[in-house]
Amino acid sequence: MMVLAIALLALASAGVLYQTIGARRSARLYVCPGTLIDIGGRRLHVVTAGVGAPAVVFEAGIAASSLSWTPVFPEIANLTRACAYDRAGLAWSDPCSEPHQLADILGDLDAVIASAAIPHPFVMVGHSFGCFVACAYAARRPSAVAGLVLVDPPAASEWLAPTPQRRRLLRRGIRLSHVGGVLARLGVVRASLTLLTGGAPRVPGTLIKTLGPTAAGKLHHLVAQVRKLPPEIHPFVQAHWSDPKCFRALAGHLRVLQEAAAFVASLRALPDVPLTVISSGELSREQLDEHRELARLSSNGRHVVAERSGHWIQFDEPQLVGTAIREMIDDLRGATLPPGPRG
User: Fold this and answer.
1) What is the pTM assigned to this prediction?
2) 87-102 pLDDT, tens per residue?
3) In a shared domain, residues 197 and 312
């Protein structure tokens, strides 16, 4: 027993050393493309490009970063000022010391907009969980938002009175995120991703199976979606998810999920601004109906179905998302805002 304990301790120590060396190497190789802004002892990573009005602010999905907008961001930055950022603990942003609430996420977004000098009012574009953040921000800061583009928002109604099964699923997701954080600290995640991308998928595949069929299926699906990003982005995403802080951030965002979804589900109206809801072609009739109802929260709302897309519409049909944003910019410039200089 003593020999086994010593062996496990040695293995863990080797894993921690491997993780430390790998993290330092990643920090040298994968430098943030934007700016790290200080918001009072913490830094958030913000990417801005382009000039013009209305500006466009991108809000990523629950475990995603500014990189998830890579297929769309350059096109919009050619039209107007564009801003994307990483929420606390994700990608290049520092983690927060206390568990975040929805109000904290909105406060961080306020800090990003102020630091990046984003002129009001601006268009907000959200994907998945980011749609909840965008809607909550518009509801609480109506004068700041000129329009909303919501890319495949989750079903908020499911969280008004979540079923016991849904609550268990959420608790399991949080627990698995914490397990992922421990494995990342021990270098297991980094080693598994290195083996996977290096052409030896059996070892990480066996490890993933131990999480259970549901979690394994979701992880395989997520990896398949990330691979739709430009190949040069893949090492950045791999480096981020080898960092324990990203798993802690995911657990924190999952804790906020129910609060954010319930807030959006309780809304009876949004600011009366242009609103476009884009749905995945894989959704059920009930989910599509909910998206149509969401679009009706504004008198200037419309609903679009991306027939050829899964949940990550900006990966599958980036031109559709880009067109929706571009048309909103053109409409706003023609109706209420002077055209800004084109970058």
Assistant:
1) 0.86
2) 999 999 999 877 679 9
3) no
